[in-house]
Amino acid sequence: MTLSVIMLALVLTGAIAWWAERHWQGSAKWLSLLGLTLLATVFAVFITSANHDFAQLQVLTRVMWIATFNIEYSIAIDQLSILLIALTWLLAIICVLISWREIKHKVGFYYFNLLLTVAGIIGVFIAVDLFLFFFFWEVMLLPMTAIIAIWGHENRRFAALKFFIFTQVSSLLMLVAIIGFAYFHLLQTGLLSFYYLDWRALPMPLAMSQYLMLGFFIAFAVKLPSVPVHTWLPDAHTQAPTAGSVLLAGVLLKTGAYGLIRFVIFLFPEASVQFAPVAATLAVVSILYGAKMAFAQQDFKRLIAYSSISHMGFVMLALFAFNSMAYQGAIVTMVAHGLSSAALFCLAGMIYQRIHSRSLIAMGGFWRSAPRMGGFTLAFACAAFGLPGLGNFIGEFLILVGVFQVQAEFAIVAALALVASAVYGMVLFQGSFQGPAKCEVIDLQRREVAICSALLLLLLLLGCYPTLLLKFSFGG
Amino acid sequence: MLLASVMLYPLLSFLFLVSFAKKLSWPTVATISVASIGLSALASGLLVWQLSASDNQLLTVTLWHWFDLNSHSGSSAVNIGFYLDGLSGVMISVVTGVGFLIHLFAAIYMKADKNFARFMAYMNLFIFAMLILVLADNLVLLYLGWEGVGLCSFLLIGFWYQEKSNVLAARKAFIVTRVGDTSMAIALFLLFSTFGTLDIELLSSVLPVINGADTDAVLDDKLYWIALLLLGGAVGKSAQLPLQTWLPDAMAGPTPVSALIHAATMVTAGVYLIARLHHVFLLTPEVMHYIAWLGAITLLLAGVAALAQNDIKRVLAYSTMSQIGYMMLALGAGAWSAGAFHLMTHAFFKALLFLTAGSIIYALHHQQNLFKMGGLLQKAPFESALFIIGLICLMALPGSSGFFSKEAIIAQLWSSDTAGPMLWWCAILGALLTSLYSCRLFFLGFLGRARFSAPIQAEKHILLRAALVALAILSLLGGLIPLELSLVFPNSVVLASKNEPSWLHTVAILTPFIGILAAWLYFKPYRLASSDNKQVLGMHNGKLAQFCQQGLGFDSVYNTFIVQPYMWLAKRNKNDIFDQIMMLNTWYVGLWHDAIIMVQNGSLRWYLAAFGIAILLLTGVILL
């Protein structure tokens, strides 16, 4: 029940912030920050005080919603969803802080959309009725589209439309698969059901499950994203306002990975194993292609966007290796990439605010006037190319060692990304902070330093003491 | 705990300096950064002493559990833990000892730089990472140090980041060594999937056992690849063929950096890696044979390249490459202790050479071109004396530290199973080349008339000179330091004692003198060069000389076959081919949209015509 109240409270806070901004300027951001921190604390208290064993999926609420179709409002959580929700809280708070000065028009409505997205994301991570899941999947999408379309950069309409159409078309496939599965359940047991645990218990012929799995797989592959359906991402990330990019890269992509774990691999274990060679190939292609494309970019944000494709390719590779170590690596990578890419997008936003450009050509030599910013950019770029001691290394190392034991060729080809990522990391860092100084910029302010150092500390912690995460099994 | 504290001081100093870089004055920064390394050096000294007193010549400490690696046979813990034995003892002494002297020098040499605090912070971070590299008790932690020193090297090469060429040199160094690192990472994956652990101590207890019952072809094959891939990592870091191209460019960094990172410590990491995992290599004699040849070829090619350089630092860079080639040759021949010994003496005299070169460059107002030097023997006698000491060691003249270590290597080559007479001759030829380029450097820089007009402005700070003198003493007497490595490297099987010709030693000792004599005659114009340098430059315009000067064409080959194609591919596909395919949908929908709009144009004639044509078509269809 608590979780439903939290989601409701998020939407309400958003609405109040929207209303309050009309009467008292500048109140929306304070209200959102307050609401988010408060609700995050409530969530933390709820999790720590609950005496469930979250290694297994714990059903918290089950009530009938649409009785005609036997659709329930049912939510459940386990360690995986708790981790991803925690990441969501953290990045949501950072989103508010990073938007502090950036958003200047329709401020109230902006925070309403932001909080609505967060509520949708949390819903996605806890829904165990597939229809409810689909509902939250859409709730998450619409305000995000609005954020890109209203507060984005010069080409925002196009990017928002592209994002919307890609996600819609792919989630339509998922909807077909969901209905197909429910209908199959009806045929087998005489009862229509959208309930996840019912589905898991249902035996299914392989041919059937292959088709249904494909529907889910495509939807999540678009979200992850994987080559060749990744092309919405560079545009969406580049055009979105900073907070939008942070949320997209930090959490929205992880809903794809989450979906792959929970709905593709657990619902269709055999079909997934059969499909693994295809998925692993796509993953390896994504890893290398993303890294190569990142190198070619001259837009700071676009470069990070393509690097995300490369990193999420590692996650997909790990998931379809069916190896416990690779799985743990995937979890660590999800968190570490959430933190590091969010940090890089924050820095992109900070630079944009100063020079009103995202082009690496307009940048160069910033180190002289902004050494603190340079230090942080370097650190996060290092995280992105997997410097040991930061979280991303642990993830990628575990993935590669794990995958190597199963399919050595894939791991070797994927390891080439170590070089390719260093190449784009160099372009990113050296292009902006080294070379002759193009212009003077103001160094980071206190709020910005706080954001960056929080993210860096977490990455360091994850890199030096990953036991914090690895002591949980995450259902692997 | 003392073991962990060695690296704690540099880390603390680094953290302090980066946090307050802008607010600190020169004395504070200098004191803190140099003192931290001094403390480290003291701790290392104490540790080495403790080590020799301990029973099994082994000290270990585990700080915390990092993560687990699981395999089919069970799980193996990877700890943040350190391991000190004779080999790492030598390494930490060199890293902290030479590191301390170089820090002392740098604190004065870089005093005027605006970013002095940042410089010293990077130097401290480097020492920290290097200590992790040599003390790590497992290969993952070693890899952490390995990448860490790479990062510091990158930061320090690009320290003067406003110069485009420095930025590019830093990028090149990082990416080229990263290629080697990737090979090493794959070696670790293979090593783990074969043996189920990456713990160095465990590996070295597992591996020798295999030697006894060695019949498994699959295992042999795996070991061969592991050794080869590890070698790939080593050649990247140690600037050996074929990944050597980054080192000459790395001279763009400040001179203390070249001395510390690109001569004394980091570039020997590859040598350390191979010596550390010598058990793997002992099982794969073919790979040892490759290592020997790789070292020999590198030492010859680098020697030839050094003969054609104009820049004093680039001569020294190629000479470093060539001396590391000797170490590799030693490792390949199974002369592990000799390799480690040469690593140590080389650190002494190469640091001395680089730092003295730095003093000279500074005194000549940042002039690095040898053809614009000359006559320094009279103008800067102190620096010249030190430089001569360094060169004597480099040429391995009898009595110097270089002599002891290089002779130790050469003496074991002839009868080694994995080396042999051919490689012995390579080593002798290399020694000849070494004296040739050393003399050329000396003649050009120190003899003849001065070819510069500005007055000399030497830094005479007492501490700077003290650091140089200390290094000079180490270079001269370093050969007498006894290394107790017999527990680390039990008698190599490949070193069988055969009947060797009696003239071997005589030839080896005489070779440097022959080189000096040849240089004395051949480089006469350099020796006697007047202030008019046209005559000197006249010797230097051949195609061959230019080819050698540019590093024997490796750069252009890599540029044509790797860099350019990648750039081309990236540029051609900048707009993402997949995106363009996806956007065809948009184009297709847009096309129909336009077509239909065009039809609905409100013009009666069009409608009538369309009507008429439609009727005609319909009747046609019906009739047919």
TrEMBL record, chain A:
Name by which UniProt lists this protein: NADH-quinone oxidoreductase subunit M
Pfam families linked to this entry: Proton_antipo_M
Similarity comment text for this entry: Belongs to the complex I subunit 4 family.
InterPro entries: NADH_Q_OxRdtase_chainM/4, NADH_UbQ_OxRdtase, ND/Mrp_TM
Signal peptide from the UniProt entry: none
Keywords: Membrane, Transmembrane, Transmembrane helix
Main localization, broad class: membrane
Presence of the UniProt keyword Membrane in the record: yes
GO cellular component, one term: endomembrane system
Protein's UniProt keywords contain Glycosyltransferase: no
Compartments where located: Endomembrane system; Membrane
Transmembrane segments: 27-47, 59-76, 82-100, 107-128, 134-151, 163-186, 206-225, 246-268, 274-291, 303-322, 328-352, 373-404, 410-429, 449-468
Entry superkingdom: Bacteria
Mode of membrane association: Multi-pass membrane protein
NCBIfam families reported for this sequence: NDH_I_M
Automatic annotation (TrEMBL), chain B:
Segments passing through the bilayer: 31-51, 90-109, 116-135, 141-161, 182-203, 223-243, 255-275, 287-308, 315-337, 343-364, 385-402, 422-450, 462-483, 503-523, 606-623
Recorded GO CC terms: endomembrane system; membrane
Domain of life of the native organism: Bacteria
Main localization of the protein described in the UniProt heading: membrane
GO biological process: ATP synthesis coupled electron transport; electron transport coupled proton transport
Keyword Transferase appears in the UniProt entry: no
All copies of domain NADH-Ubiquinone oxidoreductase (complex I) chain 5 N-terminal, residue ranges: 73-120
Keyword Membrane found: yes
GO terms, molecular function: NADH dehydrogenase (ubiquinone) activity; NADH dehydrogenase activity
Subcellular location: Endomembrane system; Membrane
Topology of the protein relative to the lipid bilayer: Multi-pass membrane protein
Ranges for domain NADH:quinone oxidoreductase/Mrp antiporter transmembrane: 136-418
Keywords attached to this entry: Membrane, Transmembrane, Transmembrane helix
InterPro entries: NADHpl_OxRdtase_5_subgr, ND/Mrp_TM, NU5C-like, Proton_antipo_N
Protein name stated in the entry: NADH dehydrogenase subunit L
